[in-house]
């Protein structure tokens, strides 16, 4: 494992706690996307910190594609890595996640073609079920309409691992309303064990979705152009914001394109210790409209994905959103999309199309 080929992108508003990065060797580069506008300074070797001024200079007229006051600011790190470095492997890690031994080694599956334990099930797979837990809990972003008992088949398939999501314990990543309503969601779960250390989620022949969380996520350079985290809205509509679906909605797109391409996306180790709870009121408020929009957004992506040719990842990404925008009115009528949701989907698709085109030049 050549550690000089790896980079970790961290979005943050605070000084990086080096104890959390204890198991990241100094040979691994660190990029911090500073969302505090200047309060973060490099505090270890091989670390760069990019404030708003630097981001604006690099992005130029496309600076509006970088969200702020949300973890989706990590998009700048993705763009910078693709345009100005030759790193082969990228991990993005939230600043409240503490690494454990073998953190880097467990990401070494990236880019490899392997025979993988693969879960096949209808609809979505709940990644928290990978833990050896007696209680059924659902991961953040797992659709409420999918919450019913399912039968799973575990088979073996071969695939090239282009994206891998590491899991998290202590504070599990769950929806705010669940934490508000149910005691089991309010507990911390320390030192959890996995039933399987690694699991491929679905295949091209049997697509399966899961709630992709960007707290602890790795991928190869080739798929970096499709990793754009969806812009959220501080004021989506009367007194309601829109938060916490940036990585979930991005994950649906990422999984769709990886499946079309015939590559593999996996979940499992390394498990990081998630140490910080969010503001529960803000979580519930921000998730509210996200749950409503999700059904329409997923249907639109499914509709468009049938029509796009298999190509390289940035071309597929651009083709996806070009199709959505070209057929927007027909899609709106077909799925009876309310005007409020339709405006967000179209405005966001325009940004995602622009993002994809940055990687074609």
Structural features, described:
By secondary structure, this protein is α/β, with parallel strands linked by helices. Helix content is 32%, strand content 22%. It has ten helices and twelve strands. The strands form two sheets. Strands 1, 2, 3, 4, 5, 6, 7, 8, 9 and 12 form a ten-stranded mixed beta sheet that branches. Strands 10-11 form a two-stranded antiparallel ribbon. The longest helix has 26 residues. The chain is globular.
Low-confidence segments, ≥5 residues, pLDDT <50?
Answer: none
* Alpha carbon gap, first and last residue: 31 Å
What Rg, in angstroms, do the CA atoms define? 19 Å
Portion of residues in beta strands equals: 15-25%
Alpha plus pi helix count: 10
Largest beta sheet, briefly? 10 strands, mixed
**What portion of residues is helical?**
25-40%
Instruction: Give the overall silhouette.
Output: globular
Q: Please, what is the average pLDDT?
A: 97
Q: Class by helix and strand content?
A: alpha/beta
Q: What is the number of strand segments?
A: 12
Question: Could you give a quick summary of the protein structure above?
Answer:
The protein has 361 residues and is an alpha/beta fold. The protein has helices at 52-59, 74-84, 103-106, 176-181, 183-186, 246-261, 280-305, 313-326, 328-335, 339-358; strands at 6-12, 29-34, 47-50, 89-93, 97-98, 113-120, 153-170, 198-201, 216-220, 233-237, 240-242, 264-274. The strands form 2 sheets. Strands 1, 2, 3, 4, 5, 6, 7, 8, 9 and 12 form a 10-stranded mixed β-sheet that branches. It has a two-stranded antiparallel ribbon with strand order 10-11.
């Amino acid at each position: 494992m050549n550690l000089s080929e790896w980079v970790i992108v961290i979005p943050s508003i605070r000084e990086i706690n080096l104890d959390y990065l204890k198991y990241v060797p100094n040979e691994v580069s660190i990029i911090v996307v500073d969302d505090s506008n200047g309060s973060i300074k490099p505090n270890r070797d091989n670390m760069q910190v990019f404030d708003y001024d630097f981001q604006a200079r690099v992005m130029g007229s496309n600076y509006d594609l970088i969200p702020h006051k949300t973890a989706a600011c990590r998009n700048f790190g993705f763009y910078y890595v693709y345009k100005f470095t030759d790193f082969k492997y990228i991990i993005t890690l939230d600043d409240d996640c503490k690494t454990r031994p073998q953190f880097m080694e467990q990401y070494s599956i990236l880019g490899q073609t392997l025979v993988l334990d693969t879960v096949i099930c209808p609809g979505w797979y709940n990644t928290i079920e990978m833990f050896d837990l007696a209680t059924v809990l659902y991961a953040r972003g797992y659709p409420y309409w999918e919450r019913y008992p399912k039968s799973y088949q575990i088979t073996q398939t071969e695939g090239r691992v282009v994206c891998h999501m590491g899991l998290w314990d202590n504070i599990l990543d769950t929806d705010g309303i669940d934490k508000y309503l149910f005691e089991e969601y309010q507990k911390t779960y320390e030192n959890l064990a996995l039933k399987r250390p690694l699991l491929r989620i679905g295949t091209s022949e049997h697509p399966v979705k899961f709630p992709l969380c960007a707290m602890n996520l790795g991928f190869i350079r080739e798929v970096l152009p499709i990793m754009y985290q969806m812009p959220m809205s501080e004021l989506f509509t009367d007194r309601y914001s829109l938060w916490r679906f940036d990585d979930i909605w991005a994950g649906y797109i990422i999984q769709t394109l990886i499946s079309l391409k015939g590559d593999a996306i996996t979940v499992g180790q390394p498990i990081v210790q998630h140490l910080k709870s969010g503001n529960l009121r803000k979580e519930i408020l921000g998730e509210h409209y996200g749950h409503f929009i999700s059904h329409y957004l997923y249907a639109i992506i499914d509709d468009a994905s049938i029509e796009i040719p298999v190509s390289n990842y940035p071309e597929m990404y651009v083709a996806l959103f070009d199709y959505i925008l070209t057929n927007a009115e027909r899609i709106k009528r077909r799925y009876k999309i309310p005007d409020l949701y339709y405006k967000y989907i179209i405005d966001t698709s325009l940004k995602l199309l622009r993002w994809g085109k940055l990687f074609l030049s």
